[in-house]
From TrEMBL:
Designated name of the protein: DUF1559 domain-containing protein
SUPFAM superfamilies the record matches: Pili subunits (SSF54523)
InterPro entries xrefs: DUF1559, Pilin-like, Pre_pil_HX9DG_C
Domain of life per record: Bacteria
Domain DUF1559: 624-834
Organism name: Maioricimonas rarisocia
Amino acid sequence: MFRRRNQVGVCLMALGGIAVGLGLLNAQQRVGTLNPEVLLPVNAVLYVKADGALLHEEKWRETAAYDALVKSGLYDVLKEAVVDTVEQLGQRGQAGEAWKAFEHVRNNGVSFAAALANQPDGAPSPWAILVVHEAGGYDNRLSELLAGTGERELQFDVEKIGNRTVHRKMIPDTPGVEVAFWTEGPHLVLVGGMGAVDAAIAVADGDVAGIRSGTAWASYSDWGDAQATFDATSVFWFDFKAVREMFGGMPLPLPGSDPQNPKRVSDALEVLGLATLDGIVSRSGYKGRALWSESHIVTGGERRGLLKLLDQEPFTLDDLPPLPQNLTGLYATRFDCGAAWDVLTDVARDVEQFIGLGGPESQVDQFLGMADEALGISIRDDLLAALGSLSCVYGDGSQGILGFGGALTVSVEDPSRLRATLRNLLGSAQRELQREDVPFRVRSIERRGREVVLLEIAEGAFSPALCIDGEWMCIGLDAQSVDAFLLRRDGDLPTWEPSPEAEEALAAVPQEIIGLSMTDPRPAIRSLMSMAPMLVGFAEAGARASGELPPGFEWPLSASDLPPAELVVAPLFPNVTVATVDETGVHYTSRVALPAFPMFGGADGATTIATTGVLVALLLPAVQSARSAARRTQSANNLKQIALALHNHHDVYRALPRGTIENDDLEPDERLSWFVSILPFVEQQALQREIDSETGWEADANRQALMSRIDVLMNPGVSDAGDSGYAPTHYVGIAGLGEDGPTLPLRDPKAGMFGYNRATSFRDVTDGLSNTLMTSEASDDFGPWGAGGNATIRPFTTKPYINGPDGIGGPYPGGCNMGLGDGAVRFISEDIDPSVIEAMTTINGRERVDF
């Protein structure tokens, strides 16, 4: 019962904490002196400080948030409910202490810093310090509370260090990591990390410089002070430059790296384009009636690689498409997808070369080529380059069910090319999904002289629509949203004009931007307040029915206690956040009445959920195709690893492995397979040592080993994981032509790479390794990877050869991956001329291969 009471109290206290945590700050008398920075180290790379309510109480009382949450009485209602619950449950101990601590922190604030200290071996080691302002003397009580839990892990040793009483504990099974806390002047100090206690005390005693004397403090803590027009209550910064300089010289354990001249962290950052990222800084506080924040991604020098993605052309509201008159929310951004594709692919190629994976043909280019082939388009040229760089998502209160309408608009560079690309993608998606019995249909209708494409999902129960009209593409939750967009384009429907409140919000932030978010918290709060009586009743009924409440417990909150919704809503106004970019980095400015989720619609959230649903529905076919392409690429990589293992086996033994491990006492399908022979070459030496090669695959001695899953033998596109207890394989060796292919002698014109009782040398392949099939994906009849016979080698016997009755094929539409003797992997179409497959199957058939 004690545990149940505690859970209820904690849950209700958390509810109150969430509410007040948004800035519901109540006045108390201030005590002590706040100088927490003197306790923070000069080498801090991360710094967070929240001043607390009492330092900015006058400015807080001027905000709309104060009127909405405190002046309305909502804060007091929630606070009294939590306190009443704590008292009824008799938890004046731990729960009461937690509430007291919470109120102390919100009133007085905290400071936090994380630093990197060099250990004796030269390796940087992180440690952190948290200073709870004006909480000095609370360390003994905290120690008592931890001891009262009865948990051994929370028992701290107490030792005197100078005039300090330090509560200290070493963390077991770590290289000297410790946690500790003590009183330092008017503050409570908590530290953690290697050598954290000694490092923190050295700073407090003045033996090591404090954070204010560091370059990071000068660079970040006063960022924007010259232009500051708001009362900052909190600051955060992360000094990436310092981290880069400290770790930059560390060598990276890359394969093939020269020990005398290893590649280092700084080299990796150059490749990624992060060598000029200096840091991140954010300040928040009050500006008149608004809660105000400014955040910055700070860069220095030329931006390359990933940082190049920050360079976007600015836009203004005039560049947006005509917006609905009943606009309920807006998010717009500038992002050049084509340029981003080029940046990301270049970075991927550079990373590939850097880590030593580069070869005659880039794996990145192979993957992109396979993705293009799978989708039937050039992703870069046909899709991304055809799109423009400006996109806008908006909520339309005049459309959709109960006004929960909305649409996504994207600027278009090449309308005709984009139409052809989408027609290709949607047609392929429809065929693929219908093949899998997914109810999805693409249908075209005419609206205002334009083609509107309907995507009918679940037999028309949900029908998003899209239309390309000149320089804009509109994707709506329904045809009416697209139709309304076209009407606004034609001037036949009124468009949005900012209200005085919106104009005031927009005028307060930069006008040339690369990103804009504008939401109104009022609909969401009004809806929540209107539902509050019902929610409170449901909560009480549920808690009582669960038996969590003790007898005689009086529910601390009733619907009648809540203030009218308009008292909370009336002071509020639209929230606006914008992003800008210049030579120093990207900057975000936010002016809000009350923090809110970035949602749109009559209930401020439903439309975003629906819009997201539309976009997900639109992207599902493409995502499914992309996932299929990714699995297909991984499967091809598996075949390449198998081929590499076979070549390594050939280098050692001058031949490929026999199709089955030789054992005259057993039939081929009772023997161990050729996969057992290549285990050392796929990093499974230990597993091979567990196998008794003198017995068959079903022998008791081998059962445990053959139950081990080997990822490289598993096709990611196949869901079959085996039902016999043995781990399966989804790949097979090619064993010639005809039902007797696996038993044919080496010189037979129909013999293939594998046979049950023979080993093939590369010099036996007179047709050429690049023209001869060695391995393939399997399409069915999967068996254990350790089993000889049809489970692991198969001949071609019956047309169609690919995805036919022989079980040679794959799960990917149109064909399968097959490995050639030279180690290359190709995707072979299921419509390939059977004579070509026959020619590629034999090792010395003297046929001409043209594919």
